[in-house]
Amino acid sequence: MNHKKVLIITYSADNQSVDKVIEFIEAAGGTAIRFNTDQYPVASRLSTVYSNNQWQIFYDDGQSTHTLHDVSAVWYWRSHGWGKGMKDMIEQPYLDAGVGEVRRTLFGMLEGLPCFQLERVHNYRRLDSKEEQLRIAWEMGLKVPPTCISNDAYRVRAFIEQYQGRVITKMQHAFAIHREQEELVVYTNVLPESSYSELDSLQLCPMVFQQRIDKNLELRVTMVGDRAFAFSIDSQKKENAQVDWRKERRSMIMDWQPYALPAEVEKKLLTFMDVYGVNYRAIDLILTPDDEYYFLETNAAGEYFWLDAQCGFGISRQIAEVLMGNVYRRA
After folding, report:
1. Is the torsion defined by CA of 233, 239, 241, 242 positive or negative?
2. What does the alpha-carbon distance between residue 49 and residue 71 come to, in Å, rounded to a whole number?
3. Beta strand 31-36 with 5-10: parallel, antiparallel or unpaired?
4. d(CA 262, CA 276)
5. Which terminus of the chain has fewer CB atoms gathered within 10 Å of its CB, N or C?
6. Peptide bond before 146: cis, by omega within 30 degrees of 0?
7. pLDDT per residue over 152-194, tens digit each?
């Protein structure tokens, strides 16, 4: 059997989850090649060469040169810090074009690799659609909150009236606004009646509105291959965390506990994975006081490191085993 090489796409300041996966890959007899996107292209080089009827890919990380055309798997985990350092080397009018070419070169190389990938770049683009996520989850028999995604104030007001004002609002993608050295994170929030008069401003920025579902617990389910790692948190014990536990992330991060997911729910989540043909998802669910499970959303590269230690680093181990091809994986 050929020696297995795994290419890992991340960035230099990523957390310990990458190191753990590398540790398990090496323990299984494989080799991990780390590609830090924030060091490319200033501190590293990437070349694809077609010559003499042969494709070859070379990656120089500044210390060693690696061949990538013979990797057996790719873990595309993070891509942050694109073009770091380039602004000091390229005139501003050419900077955006240069960073764009850097991204296209890496993504083009990854799409061209004929090996297993967790996941392929084009899958991430598809998985950006919160609307498709909800529709597929519903088709798989999972409950989803009544939802309105719109920039039409008339439609949103009608939706709010239908659910008697019990509505939360959120953006389709998590982001933060930086103002005077302060990071303002946009969380999920209850829509107060005082903001109804401001809904016309939606014209320039569509938002997601959902019926507020009563919570008993919030669940994070990390799916890897055919395994589900489920954890729960009682977000209702702190007022500031009741709508979005992340508002109390620092004080509640250690409150998550392993959770036994019902077999029926796990089966539906695995079918959800089958529809997308993917091998990693971080899925957020709500358990209501009536013991009903609601699907909220899923993240293609959702974080898991703060949960990993609670299951003996089982998530990192499973990711490594999937990458090595030692356990079930969707091809």
Report:
1. positive
2. 16
3. parallel
4. 22
5. N
6. no
7. 999 999 999 999 989 989 887 766 565 666 655 678 888 878 7
